[in-house]
Amino acid sequence: MDLARIAEESARGGFSLIAGTAASTVIGAVGVILIARLLGPASYGRCSLALVLPALFVSIADFGVSPALTRYAASLRSQAKYGTLASMIGSGLLFKLIVGLVAFLLVFVFSAELASSALQRQDMGQLVRLASLTILFQGVFSVSYNTSVGLDRMEQSALITVLRDIARVVLSPALIAVGFGVAGAILGQVAGWILAGLTGVWFLLGHRRTLRNMPSEIEPENGVRGDIQTMISFGLPLYAGSLLTTMLPQYQNIILAFFTSNAEIGNLNAAVNFGALIGIILTPVSTALFPAFSKLDLETGKDDLERMFKLSVRYTTLLILPVAIAIAALSKDLTRVVYGAAYSFAPTYLTLYACIFLLTGLGYQVVGSFFSGVGRTKETLKIAVVQLAIFLAVAPVMAWLYRVPGLIVALVVSALVATVFGLRLAAAKYGMRVDLKGSAVALAVALASSLPILPLVYYSLLPSLANVLIGASIYLATYLTLAPLLGAVRKTDLQILGPILGQIKILRPATNLILAYETRVLTALNDR
Question: Which among 16, 110, 416, 512 has most CB atoms closer than 10 A?
Answer without folding.
Answer: 16
